[in-house]
Amino acid sequence: MLNNKVAIVTGASRGAGKAIAARLTTEGAKLAIIGSTEQIHESAKELIENGADVLSIQADVSNEQQVKAAFKQTLDHYGQVDLLVNNAGLGFFKPTEETTLDEWQHVFAVNVQGVFLCTKEILPFMKEKKTGTIITISSDVGRRTIANAAAYTSSKYAVQGFIGSVAQEVQKYGIRAGTINPGAIDTFFANSRQGESHKEDWLKVNDIAEAVCYMASAPKHMVVDEIMLHPLSQEYPRI
Ligand code: NJP
Description:
Layout: E1 6-10, H1 15-26, E2 30-35, H2 39-49, E3 54-58, H3 64-78, E4 83-86, H4 101-129, E5 132-137, H5 150-170, E6 175-182, H6 205-216, E7 226-229
Helix pairs in contact: 1-6, 3-4, 4-5
The protein binds 5-hydroxy-NICOTINAMIDE-ADENINE-DINUCLEOTIDE PHOSPHATE.
């Protein structure tokens, strides 16, 4: 389905991003994967061993120069980008009065500025080609609030606002932008570990990868604005 398509997946060192990258390669996509640590190259090694065409780039999505260099490297290497998956993000859960300004700014730098910089960097190319898909992994807390997560929740509300506005701005160029808003996923999120026993019923990384695949493979005339998904066991307020 994604044969000869090129995708950039941010935050693919582990967790949901790594599963998204692997799933896209099974659909035939070529990839550039981005992560801020050397672990990104280990992810690429695994995919390449399985026959995939993968370029790994160590870059911090909140750093403008590093994002520019990473996207240039990808375009120089493949000559095209059809899909951007803004997945890199961090979880942060603390009462407001215990949250320092540095922590607040760091959450916004990665979760919001990172999505802005990566999206901004790919738009000129997609506009010129008059096609492209941008999928951003946001959160259910980008649509409903929870306690002791003010920095994280407001960062994901900002992501929803940003992508909603961008989607309207670029639809006339044939570019589609939407979000996936998951509840609890069994990953390394917020300094926890993948596979812990209390996460047994949580969403699996492959659930997110399937949602990305569905959005990315939608027929050209259709845009999937938003997918919200939760573990059946998770209680959450309905809007
Ligand atoms: O988290 P984790 P998830 N620049 O910690 C990378 C959302 N979500 O897979 O930088 C570039 O296992 C990091 O790689 P590295 C969440 O908000 C989750 O759960 O090399 N990359 C790693 O690959 C996020 O948007 C839950 O260490 C950076 C990845 O990001 C998305 O799901 C619930 C980076 C994080 O992997 C994937 O998170 C929900 C940077 N500055 C939404 N900083 C959940 N897990 O329950 C980090 O509602 N990375």
